[in-house]
């Protein structure tokens, strides 16, 4: 039976579930009923005197595990459970659970989940009573401590109430704008019960402070917080600030302006809350009151802002002037405002450029200004500043490159495609046909109709339950925290979220919300960031409603006349080691129904599909890619905010080159290689092919053996059978994952088979670029890459056919050590096999199947066949991308940074007649050392005779530049040794340790300069992170980078079903993770350099009119333009490393992290740690004598 993990973040876009371990080890909890996991470190005796001597913690931990195990066994025993309401299932008391855990009480669900039937004839023993009493005392002490900890919050709430009452009396004489945003009853299918909802949802104006206070309280348990309290004021309050800002935006989006103002003023009323208030909070209120034309409220907020010590910015003054324009304010008032604006150092002209005013706002602001200065008119937009990077001065100083977009399309065609994309994104989802063949039978038709009827019933049940729980929450203090957020949308929209219907939140719905509201349209056009805790609580609430509401008949597949409704979803527990994990598990009958329905449609979010028109160009960190769907310029984990803040604070001219490179990559148009796609689909539906990496269907999954033993079975036999069963289950899961992944890719490709499409791009925090659509893109596997062709074709020209042949041999992996001439000659020798593969791929000699990249090789065979059979091969228009790969690109950058002659020769920075293979070179050094050790009598060296190969060391050599440790290298080599059938398995452990040491030693000999640079970067990051800062740097193109590695923070979020553990690894309020910071800095720095090289190559290739895309250090273009791309690639690598990269990095780090103590009057005032940091960051490794100009002559630098 399939298991659905509880996903707490239903409202977020991320695909990673938040339902991991429900509670960390050792964390406090109010009760184990919430799904806590516990561990213990000793064995326990059942003897009562022995138990009496155990500590409280050990007793409770054992008891909780026993209780959890009992609940699990009971869940497995009970086939049907009926729960009337999630809220009415009371948590069982400790004494009840004590009895159940010891088998003294049986708990069976008969009509109600909380029914408990005692077993007659069993009595409580003395030690059970003692444990019960001790546990009760422990729980009371914990509750008492929590009450004391919350006293401060209670006092603060009383202060807020007093301040609010005082401000209300003070402003009572003034005319206040009434709240216009009263919640309206839903219409349509909700009309029949609108009267029931209105009593609870239409005129409620409860104080929002209570909701905010409960939200803060529900964050509950935070583990691993900063004990020193030395974080900055901003970082300490960042979580509360985000929560408060989201609350204000929530109120304003419902037009509850008065309540939003009261909330802000209540924080202003005491110094602790005043420090939490930020300028964006005031600005959102100013913009809202400006739309209302309430100059008095604007004036009050400005006074409060000044008393808080905050200086108004352009957004603040734009709101004031907009309000003055709406109410036609007096001349003197406007004049005073403009003078104050100049006093604050703000220029009037910038209002119309940096203020991002909408059309109506612009008119009102201009109206107010022209009342004082009649001749004023907004200045024309100034030309953008040229990027200051010396690498791009020539690029931006010359004439502009080809027009946008790259593929020449008529204007009408572009407009048509834009409308198609707009329609697709407005619908939010798209349903396409699956390529998996499923026979349609009478049973499947009946199952589909039944499933459709059930969904219709579930929607009504969900709507009813959601109304009831929402009304219940509006009256309960303990659950009021989510109520305002649940009022943002109509009830049916939340039901659509739970049902995942296509009609959820279309563009027209947002437009109607905006037209009904009178506040700034920014609330609807800009993405709002909500705290993770709010998202988790909303998600868990919707899950709880799902579990409670949806039901189905118990006799779906039988002819019984008696029908009884049973739940479709069950909340159950399982165990991972000693951790208790919660699951949402569907009923087996529902699984059977879905399987028999055999749905032939797949539904995707529109944001994961390729675009049907050229992407929006990236013009800022918040604008680009999809037409409607908000996309992050820098992808990161949910809750990570430092990257976006850095980008927004960075001068925009520093980002121009990065944004231009992303736009050029996304500007490449694609189409589907239909012959190859049809072949792959035919094999996919014919039970797949392991040889060709086409996953088989689940019918081919191994069947686990029966778990039955004879009476005299030994423990070894039982252990062997358990491992065999576990391996079968693991293989089945892997097959399902691979099959589903291939199904998504092939179905999307089939849907787009007659279309031209685009992949919008963004980047990670190091600057490495990625296509936004996750399933189908050119970064995929061999199968996916073979399906893709450039939509724009170019004639092969004089050298294009030769490059196609060389590209084919590169894909086979057969001539890696041979020259390009030898590869071309080999391609001509096997031309007959190439043509046979193109003509008869499945019935011929099948030469293409026995190579490294079979599907891409087949696509290339077909392209070569079409070219050689054309009347003029030089005029043949080719659409196939040709690749040029860097030769261990990370080591290439290290060798160039250190000017390492030996390292440069090993990674093809020096001209050679044949390509140098660094992997074979390392393998040769390892073998030489092994021979010397074997001669000295080393037993493990003697065992390894004949097993040292290029493949054995390749992965470790390739990843050592990206920060792999000795431990990681040992694991890689261990895996390779296990793949060798002839190698004795009893020596794998010892051999992997021995070989990993030899590999690292050999690399140190070959790349001495590389090791010095790595060590310097590691030491620098260690000093920086130990000082309490994260490592930051700026790439040669001006992109700011910060490493998001911090101490893990675990937050326990309580729920009715269970508790959830929210893990944060990049919370800026936590100390940096020193180990991750220092280990990740060298590889991340090199990644930022290879992305810089790629972006430079993309920009200058575009200047020369080339089509260019990349897969990190693998560059793609047309066959006819490979020579030009190779020239540009080498030139830009030389230009990049001609800059003093390490020296600039050192100066930046010293200025950023040592400027405080460098300003001391004398070096004696500096501490030892400060001196060490300054010395480490300033000491740049010396460089060798390698001449970078040799790279331009190296044929195999990229080949």
From TrEMBL:
- GO CC terms in record: mitochondrial DNA-directed RNA polymerase complex
From the UniProt record, list the coiled-coil ranges. none
* Location of the region described as Disordered in the Swiss-Prot/TrEMBL record: 21-42
Q: What is its EC number?
A: 2.7.7.6
Domain DNA-directed RNA polymerase N-terminal, chain residue ranges per copy: 419-667
The record describes the protein's role as:
DNA-dependent RNA polymerase catalyzes the transcription of DNA into RNA using the four ribonucleoside triphosphates as substrates.
- Tell me which family the UniProt entry assigns to this protein: Belongs to the phage and mitochondrial RNA polymerase family.
Q: What is this protein called?
A: DNA-directed RNA polymerase
Source organism per entry reads Vombatus ursinus (Common wombat)
**Gene name per UniProt:** POLRMT
């Amino acid at each position: 039976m399939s298991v659905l993990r509880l996903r707490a973040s239903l409202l977020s876009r991320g695909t990673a579930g938040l339902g991991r371990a429900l509670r960390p080890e050792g964390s406090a909890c109010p009760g184990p009923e919430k799904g806590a996991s516990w561990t213990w470190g000793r064995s326990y005796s059942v003897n009562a005197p022995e138990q009496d001597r155990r500590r409280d913690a050990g007793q409770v931990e054992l008891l909780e595990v026993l209780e959890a195990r009992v609940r699990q066994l009971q869940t497995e025993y009970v086939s049907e459970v009926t729960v009337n309401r999630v809220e009415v299932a009371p948590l069982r008391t400790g004494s009840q659970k004590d009895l159940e855990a010891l088998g003294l009480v049986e708990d069976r669900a008969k009509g109600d989940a909380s029914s408990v039937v005692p077993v007659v004839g069993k009595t409580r023993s003395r030690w059970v009573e003692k444990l019960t009493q001790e546990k009760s005392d422990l729980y009371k002490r914990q509750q008492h401590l929590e009450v004391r900890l919350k006293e401060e919050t209670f006092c603060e709430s009383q202060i807020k109430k007093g301040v609010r009452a005082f401000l209300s009396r003070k402003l009572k004489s003034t005319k206040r704008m009434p709240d216009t945003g009263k919640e309206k009853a839903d219409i349509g299918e909700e009309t029949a019960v609108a009267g029931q909802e209105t009593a609870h949802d239409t005129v409620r104006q409860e104080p929002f402070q209570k909701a905010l206070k409960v939200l803060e309280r529900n964050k509950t348990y935070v583990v691993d917080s900063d004990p020193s309290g030395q974080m900055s004021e901003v970082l300490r309050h960042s979580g509360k600030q985000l929560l408060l800002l989201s609350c204000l935006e929530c109120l304003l989006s419902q037009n509850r302006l008065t309540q939003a103002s009261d909330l802000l003023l209540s924080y202003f009323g005491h110094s602790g809350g005043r420090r939490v208030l930020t300028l964006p909070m005031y600005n959102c209120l100013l913009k809202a009151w400006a739309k209302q034309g309430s100059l008095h409220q604007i004036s009050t907020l400005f006074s409060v802002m000044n008393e808080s010590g905050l200086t108004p910015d352009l957004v603040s003054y734009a709101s004031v002037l907009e309000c003055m324009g709406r109410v036609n304010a007096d001349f003197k008032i406007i004049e005073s405002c403009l003078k104050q604006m100049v006093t604050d150092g703000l220029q009037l002209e910038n209002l119309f450029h940096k203020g991002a005013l909408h059309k109506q706002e612009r008119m009102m602001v201009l109206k107010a200004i022209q009342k004082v200065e009649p001749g004023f008119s907004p200045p024309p937009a100034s030309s953008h500043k040229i990027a200051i990077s010396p690498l791009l001065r020539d690029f931006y100083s010359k004439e502009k490159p080809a027009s946008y977009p790259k593929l020449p399309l008529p204007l009408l065609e572009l407009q048509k495609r834009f409308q198609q994309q707009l329609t697709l994104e407005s619908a939010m989802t798209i349903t396409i046909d699956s390529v998996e063949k499923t026979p349609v039978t009478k049973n499947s038709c009946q199952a589909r109709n039944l499933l459709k009827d059930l969904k219709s019933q579930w929607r009504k049940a969900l709507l009813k339950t959601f109304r009831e729980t929402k009304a219940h929450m509006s009256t309960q203090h303990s659950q009021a925290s989510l109520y305002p957020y649940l009022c943002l949308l109509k009830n049916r929209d939340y039901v659509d979220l739970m049902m995942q219907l296509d009609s959820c939140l279309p563009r027209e719905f947002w437009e109607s919300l905006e037209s009904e509201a009178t506040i700034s349209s920014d609330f609807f056009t800009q993405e709002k960031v909500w705290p993770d805790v709010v998202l988790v609580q909303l998600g868990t609430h919707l899950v709880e409603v799902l579990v409670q509401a949806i039901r189905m008949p118990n006799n779906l597949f039988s002819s019984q006349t008696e029908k009884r409704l049973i739940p479709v979803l069950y909340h159950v527990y399982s165990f991972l080691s000693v951790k208790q994990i919660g699951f949402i598990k569907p009923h087996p009958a529902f699984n059977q129904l879905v399987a028999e329905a055999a749905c032939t449609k797949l539904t995707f979010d529109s944001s994961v599909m390729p675009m049907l028109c050229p992407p929006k160009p990236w013009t800022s960190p918040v604008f680009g890619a999809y037409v409607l769907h908000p996309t992050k310029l820098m992808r990161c984990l949910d809750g990570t905010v430092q990257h976006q803040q850095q980008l927004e604070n960075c001068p925009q001219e520093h980002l121009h080159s990065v944004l231009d490179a992303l736009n050029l990559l996304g500007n490449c148009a694609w189409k589907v290689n239909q012959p190859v796609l049809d072949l792959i689909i035919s094999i996919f539906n014919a039970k797949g092919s392991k040889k060709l990496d086409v996953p088989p269907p689940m019918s081919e999954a191994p069947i686990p053996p029966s778990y039955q033993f004879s009476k005299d079975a030994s423990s070894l036999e039982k252990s062997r059978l358990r491992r065999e069963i576990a391996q079968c289950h693991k293989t089945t899961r892997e097959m399902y994952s691979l099959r589903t992944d291939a199904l998504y890719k092939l179905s999307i490709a089939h849907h787009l088979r007659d279309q031209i499409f685009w992949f919008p791009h963004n980047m990670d925090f190091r600057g490495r670029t990625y296509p936004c659509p996750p399933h189908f893109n050119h970064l995929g596997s061999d199968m996916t890459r073979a399906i893709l062709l450039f939509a724009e074709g170019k004639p092969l020209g004089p050298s294009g056919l030769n490059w196609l042949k060389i590209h084919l041999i590169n894909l086979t992996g057969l001539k890696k050590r041979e020259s390009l001439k030898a590869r071309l000659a080999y391609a001509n020798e096997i031309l007959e096999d190439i043509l046979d593969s193109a003509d008869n791929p499945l019935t011929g000699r099948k030469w293409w199947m026995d190579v490294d990249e079979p599907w891409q090789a087949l696509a290339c065979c077909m392209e070569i066949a079409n070219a050689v059979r054309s009347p003029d091969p030089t005029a043949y228009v080719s659409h196939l991308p040709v690749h040029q790969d860097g030769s261990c690109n990370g080591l290439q950058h290290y060798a160039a940074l250190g000017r390492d002659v030996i390292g440069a020769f090993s990674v093809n920075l020096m001209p050679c007649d044949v390509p140098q293979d660094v992997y074979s070179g390392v393998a040769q050094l390892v073998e030489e050392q092994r021979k010397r050790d074997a001669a000295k009598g080393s037993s493990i060296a003697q065992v390894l005779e004949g097993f040292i190969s290029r493949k054995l060391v390749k992965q470790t050599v390739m990843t050592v530049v990206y920060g792999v440790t000795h431990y990681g290298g040992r694991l890689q080599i261990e895996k390779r040794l296990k793949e060798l059938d002839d190698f004795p398995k009893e020596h794998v452990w010892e051999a992997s340790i021995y070989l990993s040491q030899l590999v690292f030693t050999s690399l140190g000999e070959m790349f001495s300069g590389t090791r010095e640079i790595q060590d310097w970067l590691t030491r620098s990051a260690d000093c920086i992170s130990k000082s309490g800062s994260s490592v930051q740097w700026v790439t040669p193109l001006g992109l700011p980078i910060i490493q998001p590695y911090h101490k893990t923070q675990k937050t326990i979020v309580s729920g009715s079903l269970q508790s959830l553990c929210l893990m944060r690894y990049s919370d800026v309020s936590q100390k940096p993770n020193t180990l991750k910071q220092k280990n990740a800095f060298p590889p991340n720095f090199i990644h930022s350099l290879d992305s810089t090289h790629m972006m430079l190559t993309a920009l200058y290739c575009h200047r020369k009119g080339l089509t260019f895309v990349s897969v990190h250090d693998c560059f793609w273009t047309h066959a006819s333009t490979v020579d030009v791309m190779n020239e540009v690639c080498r030139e830009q690598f030389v230009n990049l490393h001609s800059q003093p990269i390490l020296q600039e990095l050192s100066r930046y780090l010293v200025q950023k992290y040592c400027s405080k103590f460098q300003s001391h009057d004398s070096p004696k005032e500096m501490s030892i740690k400060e001196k060490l940091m300054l010395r480490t960051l300033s000491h740049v490794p010396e460089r060798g004598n390698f001449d970078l100009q040799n790279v331009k002559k190296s044929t195999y630098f990229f080949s």
